[in-house]
Design a protein that fits this description.
The protein has 146 residues and is α+β, with helices and mostly antiparallel strands. 28% of the residues lie in helices and 12% in strands.
């Protein structure tokens, strides 16, 4: 999915194998540090280049490093060959938003209707289904109703 967060992609992939993200990553040889936030979209997972390579090979998606490249950064202080993943909280302004559930259901081949993506505000309305991408806390910021 376009601009999907790394955590969202991992969650969808792990869900298809009926495991959680930590089990999936550790199962393919990636050391995981930290825990995800309690609210979906409130945290992101940062993969080392080696971890991203492992994940791309496991998922059989050669272009995965390019797809996740905007949200994936090299882990600090680790050698290039050490596959690690770090969960980190995100500030509310930097959190991804929910994608259109109908588009997600179609692209995920019916497996899930929930995904999170980094979308510019002017692109949060699905042009096909006319559904608004909501932030993780389900509040629309900047609008006041009297």
């Amino acid at each position: 999915m376009a601009h999907e967060s790394t955590a969202s992609y991992l969650h969808r992939l792990a869900e298809s194998y009926r495991v959680d993200c930590r089990q999936l990553l550790e199962g393919i040889g990636i050391t995981v540090h930290g825990r995800p936030g309690s609210t979906p979209g409130s945290s992101e997972i940062v993969l080392s280049p080696a971890a991203l390579h492992h994940l791309a090979a496991f998922a059989r998606v050669p272009g995965l490093p390019l797809a996740l490249g905007k949200t994936v950064h090299g882990a600090r202080g680790l050698g290039p060959g050490h596959p690690t993943a770090h969960w980190q909280p995100l500030e509310p302004a930097g959190q991804p938003t929910r994608t259109c559930p109908r588009c997600t259901l179609h692209r995920a081949h019916g497996t899930t209707s929930q995904a999170w993506a980094y979308q510019a505000e002017h692109r949060r309305l699905c042009p096909r289904h006319h559904q608004w991408a909501t932030p993780p806390n389900d509040r629309v910021r900047g609008l006041a109703f009297s």
